[in-house]
Amino acid sequence: MPTFTFDRLALAVSVLTPKLIRLRYARNGKFAKRRAWAVTKDDSEFAPTQSDVNETSQEIIINTKAISIHIQRDTGKIHFTDSQNKIFCADDARPSVTSVTKSVAKSVATGEHFYGFGERTYSSLERSGCIYTHWATDTAVPHTPDVDRMYVAIPIYFSVRPNLDYAVYFNNTYRSQFDVGYTDPNQIRFSADGGEIDYYVFYGPTPREVNEGIAQLLGTHPLPPRWALGYHQSRWGYKSDQEIRKLAKEFRQREIPCDVIHFDIDYMDGYRVFTWHPTRFKNPKKLIADLRRDGFRAVTIIDPGVKADKKYFVYQEGLKKNYFVKKQNGKVFHGYVWPDDSVFADFTRDDVRDWWGELQKHLTDKGVSGIWNDMNEPAVFSKPFSAGVGNTGTIDLDAKQSDTTHAEAHNVFGYNMARASYEGLRKLLPDERAFTLTRSGFAGMQKFSAGWSGDNHAWWEHLETSLPQACNMGLSGVSFFGADIGGFNSDASPELFARWMQVGSLYPFARGHSHTDSIYQEPWRFGERVEKICRDYLRLRYRLLPYLYSLFYESSQHGTPIWRPMFYHYPNDERTYHLHDQVMIGDSILVAPIYKANCDRRVVYLPQGEWFDYWTDEKIAGATHITAHAPLEVMPLYVRAGAVIPSGPDLNYADEKPLSPLTLDVYAGEGEFTLYEDDGHTFEYEKGVFAITRLEIRDSRLKIHKREGNYAPPSRKIIIRPHGMERKETVEVED
Ligand code: MIG
Fold first, then answer.
1. Is 408 near ligand 1, meaning CB less than 6 Å away?
2. 487 in ligand 1 pocket by Cβ < 6 Å?
3. Ligand 1 close to Cβ of residue 120 (< 6 A)
4. What is the distance between the alpha carbons of residues 135 and 634, in angstroms, rounded to a whole number?
5. Closest C-alpha to ligand 1, atom 5
6. Does 301 sit in the ligand 1 pocket, CB within 6 Å?
7. Alpha carbon nearest to ligand 1 atom 12, residue
8. Is the CB of 297 under 6 A from ligand 1?
């Protein structure tokens, strides 16, 4: 690791891979202790990679196989160049590191566009012209465009221009900001309230390669159980055993697919985590076993606030073992949340995470399959039960956590809680892939959990916002993500609900959820017409599970997002750079939802190449803008030429039937798809028990490559359905 010193400011450059570079600055040559919460590997854990150093009178140049890093001798300013000598990520000023603030300013290149920034409000995809604060917050105010602090804090930006994409991760967990051309349109500046200037640059040049780099450093989503890709039904206010049973029955009677029922805070005894309400949920084990027989999994909510109740075992144990966060004066920190007076576990500590992870036994023993971690910014109300407006309170910033204070650990509170939860479940259910969901998180949270966008509203604007929000989360590394379908706060109208379910049925994480004070929002609450729309689109999701599951596999291997903005596949087409309202799901499917009231048509941009209308098979040549006709029953969907889309039978829940027959929709053109299959719920795939089948289409001929891996799919028919080809008839072959 070469280190350079300019004016007592030491700079360390680590070439971790030819495309992944780390830069750190320290005053007086002393680098702070490494903060390893988010990253998976220390510098020394990367395989050695070749780079050489060239010195000229003006510059020190470090060359890797892919890029060069230039350091100006007189100023210490840095810039990068690609193999075409194009400059990127160039310092606009010398980094400034004082004892109070740290900041780096980069110049914005001509035509450079910015994405990522984790979870954000506002219906724009490209994010120049604003300041983004990284400070995990219970955003209990409506998520309007001016809301800057959200539940999740991910200090990553993703830069795109023709042939040159890269990302930057600011490895600092203190409250920090990215000023993206707000103060100065030619500058992107990042700064933090504490810690070091420590950042990583991920060079592409394509978006896919950028995400691959992010995955190498910050990790990927482990492959979820297949059932977690099904539809989840939730509501704050399912209050009893009977209510949940009735809910499950409705789904099956109405033949609306559903895999998961979420239990919100009402299942607990006085909001004491890891307990069950003694009268409303008398026999949770029996309830969950019965649900399971009907193909439902149970996911229970857990909050970080532990009720300060001397008779409560979690409080007793935690106190005795010294597991709770303490104030500067050494006394345990107390705050008000749902259980009233509460204390908070210090999740930065290994022993505390182990303890918490094990406490989940009180849930898994009853048959619970997954944990939903809420309120973990952590949110602290100002007074008992004053939940509502502006709960921006949290733990005292000077409270102690491990060897630091909450000021540094705040942004990773939710992240570390999700880690405790995920690692605990792996131990408690060693043969079952569990599901975890978290509201708060930090860069790298994908290693432990899926995420959702918190308390949105039943507003058209929030349906619209969910599109760029999910895409930018994917670019930031978190692809298992969705918004509450139908909207959490306020009451959905039938039309809004239908439109939201159409697109929500294809969210990576598809969950309907609502507030206890809003109307019930299950798919059948809005009349028969809307119920049918919900059934039809959820069935579409379930038929597409082989496709989606393969995308999740790819994401677990390479960090590739499931939902991708259009530029992901057309990075040199500048017309895609601001396209926030249409999304690619994997390589092949384009979804262009309706997100406005009383609207039955919209403009869709189809980039270069040929496209097929999913519903009519009409062939359309890109690049073009078309007007899609979309009465309430229709959400515009398109397929790229050369696509092979695997699908399965209609299902009521993901593992109801084996993948038989397997249907392959083959669209004229050139392309390929890798179908991934396994048992759907164990860890056998880690030992090679999976099946990978490459499906290739060349010259309008489908080639099914020899299957790899040790998993034997059921014996089945393969139905091949040609689209846009001379040959029209469906072919059936034995697998
Ligand atoms: O202060 O558990 O975002 O999904 O239903 C509200 C009750 C606490 C906030 C979550 C929401 C959940 C609700 N929770």
1. no
2. no
3. no
4. 39
5. 236
6. yes
7. 236
8. no
Tokens 């509502």 -> residue = 388
Find out whether 205 and 155 touch, Cβ atoms under 8 Å: no
Q: Is the CB of 439 under 6 A from ligand 1?
A: yes
The enclosing H or E element of 153 equals strand 152-153
Sign of CA dihedral 165, 171, 173, 175: negative
Helix 284-293, helix 241-253: angle, nearest 10: 0
CA–CA gap between residue 661 and residue 665 (Å, rounded) = 13
In one letter, which amino acid is 202?
F
Task: Find the 374 Cα to ligand 1 centroid distance in Å.
Answer: 7
Tokens 């990075």 identify what position?
A: 571
- Decide: helix, strand or coil at residue 113: strand
* CA–centroid distance, residue 516 to ligand 1 (Å): 9
CA quadruple 261, 265, 267, 272: dihedral positive or negative?
A: positive
* Atom in ligand 1 nearest the alpha carbon of residue 264: 2
Q: Are strands 370-373 and 435-438 parallel, antiparallel or unpaired?
A: parallel
Distance 475 CA to ligand 1 centre (A): 26
**Cα separation of 514 and 527, whole Å?**
18
Q: Is the distance from CB of 244 to CB of 366 less than 8 angstroms?
A: no
Pocket test for ligand 1, best of 337, 375, 392 (most atoms within 8 A of CB): 375
Whether the per-residue pLDDT at 105 is higher than 50: the answer is yes
Could you read off the pLDDT of 600-625 as tens digits, one per residue? 999 999 999 999 999 999 999 999 99
- Angle, in degrees to the nearest 10, between helices 545-558 and 207-218: 70
Query: What CA–CA distance (Å, rounded) separates 264 from 373?
Result: 10
pLDDT at 389: 39
The whole-number pLDDT of residue 308 equals 97
Cα 411 to averaged position of ligand 1 atoms, centre (Å): 19
Map residue 344 onto helix, strand or coil: strand
Cβ atoms of 411 and 177 closer than 8 Å: no
What does the radius of gyration of the chain's CA atoms come to, in whole angstroms? 25
Q: Which atom of ligand 1 is nearest to the CA of 391?
A: 1
Q: Under a CB-based contact definition with an 8 Å cutoff, are residues 594 and 635 in contact?
A: yes
Give percent helix, percent strand, percent coil of the chain, each to the nearest 5. 20, 30, 50
Q: Which of 143, 235, 236, 515, when mutated, tests ligand 1's pocket best, judged by the most ligand atoms within 8 Å of its CB?
A: 236
Bridge partners (DSSP) of residue 203 are: 166
CB–CB of 367/288 below 8 Å?
A: yes
Looking at residue 30, what is its pLDDT?
A: 79
Angle between helices 207-218 and 460-475 (to 10 degrees): 70
Run of H or E including 502: helix 494-504
C-beta 374 within 6 A of ligand 1: yes
Per-residue pLDDT tens for 151-198? Answer: 999 999 999 999 999 999 999 999 999 999 999 999 999 999 988 899
The two structure tokens encoding residue 203: 């060079």
Nearest CA to ligand 1 atom 13: 236
Ligand 1 mean position, distance from CA 670 (Å): 47
Residue 387 CB less than 6 A away from ligand 1: yes
Q: Which helix (H) or strand (E) holds 241?
A: helix 241-253
SS3 assignment for 347-412: CCCHHHHHHHHHHCHHHHCCCCCEEEECCCCCCCECCCCCCCCCCCCCCCCCCEECCEEHHHHHHH
- List, as one string, the DSSP characters of 202-230: EE-SSHHHHHHHHHHHH--PPPPPGGGGS
Nearest CA to 713 out of 687, 686, 683, 676 is that of 676
Q: Is the CB of 265 under 6 A from ligand 1?
A: yes
For the annotated catalytic residues, the residue numbers are 374, 377, 455
Residue 238, φ and ψ in degrees, nearest 5 = -80, 100
